Amino acid sequence: MNADHIIQEIVNLPAEERRKVIDFVRNLVGQQFEEEQIKIAQKRIEEYDMGLEKAVHHEEAIRLLRKA
């Protein structure tokens, strides 16, 4: 099943079901973004701990972790 087929299936759903599916997909995208931000923050903290301070903004990494 390709993206066009999936989109057509969603479009053909009743309005309430379509809204639920779209909300679910948006939540998934948001979770993926947060997971990526956490990975980036963890990597920056590890680099900071290894003494690579020039390449790492420690405060930014901590902020990203707190935000997620």
TrEMBL record:
Domain of life, source organism: Bacteria
Protein name (Swiss-Prot/TrEMBL): Uncharacterized protein
Organism field: Pelagicoccus albus
